[in-house]
Amino acid sequence: MSNRPYGNELLDVARRSLLDKVLPAVSEDKVYDVLMVANAMAIAARELASGPQQNDEEDSVLAAQIRARDLPPQTQAQLHRLLLDRTRSALALSNPKYLNT
What we know:
By secondary structure, the chain is an all-alpha fold. It has 2 domains: about 50 residues; about 45 residues. It contains 5 helices and no strands.
């Protein structure tokens, strides 16, 4: 059984309506607010579309290990790749255009 449209699809449609129909009708002093809301909707839609994110508890353990310098030297390259991957994943949600520059 499908529960379509999904939340990300609803946000995409609502965002498109906001930009296409509402934005042209708002006063100049409200344009920034409308664009900010549209951007937040796009980020939320991408987050919903990407599925469940990394476990916060796992992140906390990793952060604690890094702060305690409790990582063996041979894991440094692996840690670097992991942090780079997580950063790219976060950027893909919050600012995908940045990855394309």
